[in-house]
Write a structure and sequence with these properties.
mainly alpha
Length: 218
């Protein structure tokens, strides 16, 4: 086939294709317009949601940073407590601020005040902050020598096996509760289990030290 003929053939094929597309558009003009409009709307909505999510995360990060900065200052500047309490009353920062206030008073062994702030925390979601709060509730109970309550909390954490919270920490605290309660046999059993299951972790190492001390007392 000569070059000129091939060129004309390609032009004819292109013309036929364009003609077919024009006819298709004219036939389904309404449907094509609706689909195109829907796609444009979906793109606009998606872009809007993406912008809102980005802005929300930015605002949340600033709010978290503000709470953490205040919590760090409170130890040296008690007057900052009032500012932290204001943040504890707001929706976006209330969980974290109440948690930090509870930590502050627990460190001062003021169990009543620590418990009052922990009581303001919601029951969920069961994220890292939730389990940190549960841990602190158990520590407050231990401070009050309410070992039964602390044991119940740590047992519950162990049963739930959260992915967001170190299980070896909860099990170590549970063993400590039994030890402080005077239930040495159970404490020894829990320390041994912890040492076996988490030999390379910090709490696994601490459990081995506890075992040595408890066995030396026999």
């Amino acid at each position: 086939m000569k070059r000129t003929e091939r060129h004309h053939l390609k032009e004819d094929q292109m013309a036929t294709g364009v003609h077919w597309l024009v006819e298709l558009y004219q036939t389904y003009k309404r449907e094509i317009t609706l689909v195109a409009g829907a796609l444009v709307l979906a793109a606009v909505v998606f872009s809007g949601l993406l912008i809102i999510r980005t802005q929300t995360r930015s605002v949340r990060s600033r709010a978290i940073g503000e709470v953490m900065d205040l919590a760090a200052e409170v130890a040296q500047k008690p007057e900052k407590l009032a500012e932290l309490e204001k943040l504890a009353a707001k929706g976006r920062t209330s969980r974290l601020a109440n948690m930090e206030l509870a930590k502050h008073w627990a460190e001062k062994s003021d169990w009543a005040k620590a418990d009052s702030y922990l009581g303001k925390l919601p029951a969920g979601p069961k994220d890292l902050l939730y389990y940190q709060a549960e841990d602190l509730k158990a520590q407050v109970a231990m401070g009050r020598k309410d070992y039964g309550k602390a044991i119940a909390i740590y047992t519950k954490i162990g049963d739930e096996k959260p992915k967001t919270y170190p299980l070896d920490a909860a099990r170590f605290r549970l063993a400590e509760c039994h030890e402080l309660k005077g239930d040495t046999a159970t404490a020894l059993e829990l320390y041994k289990k912890l040492q076996t299951e988490f030999p390379q972790s910090y709490f696994g190492y601490e459990a081995s030290l506890k075992l040595s001390k408890l066995e030396a007392r026999k």
